[in-house]
Amino acid sequence: MDRNINKFTISIPENMEEELSVVKQKFYCQKTQTDMIRDLIRRGLESLKEDEPVENRKCCEST
Length: 63
Known about the structure:
Blueprint: H1 14-27, H2 33-50
């Protein structure tokens, strides 16, 4: 694991906390919550790479 670890804090809505709790029990019962969150972030980032290139997205353009 990378030794250069940055820490940050996020706030999540209660319903997301409940969803994460279910996911933890179902898929990550042998992992820490931190490991679960890292894996979910990593998976999300990987899925973005598989999507259409960023330069073709309109979400970052001003309206």
